[in-house]
Write a structure and sequence with these properties.
It is built from 4 helices and 3 strands. By secondary structure, the chain is of the alpha+beta class. 18% of the residues are buried.
């Protein structure tokens, strides 16, 4: 059950960003810029991930053992940290996707309601 209260919107946004990053990495190792670019592209420019939020998420996921980071060279021959999903990260992605799908369905049920129903 999702509870909506004072701290929950921030937690929901953080959890959603984490899930988006994990999904992006499910396609293979990527550096931060590539992650942000892919999310923006796939969402038809609707979701733009700010650098600070992205790197906080990547460090949070790395601290939790959901992603591993390794330094390498980018397509532009610049030093970049590449992140890859761990097996724990794959399991977390499955759980997050399921949780977010339930939350989205509940949110749409409320927003698409066309009449008052007494509980």
């Amino acid at each position: 059950m999702a509870r909506i209260g004072a701290n929950e919107p921030e937690e929901l946004l953080r959890g959603t960003l984490d899930a988006l990053v994990l999904k992006t990495l499910s396609w293979g190792p990527r550096h931060g810029y590539a992650i942000a670019r892919w999310i923006k592209h796939v969402s038809s420019d609707t979701l733009t991930v700010e650098d600070r939020a992205l790197y906080l998420a990547l460090h949070r996921l790395e601290d939790r053992g959901l992603v591993d980071g390794e330094w390498g060279l980018s397509e532009n021959n610049r030093r970049a940290k590449y992140y890859r999903l761990t097996s724990a990260g794959r399991a977390e992605l499955r759980a997050d996707a399921s949780r977010l799908a339930r939350y989205t369905a509940a949110l749409l049920a409320v927003l698409n309601s066309t009449r008052w129903e007494t509980p």
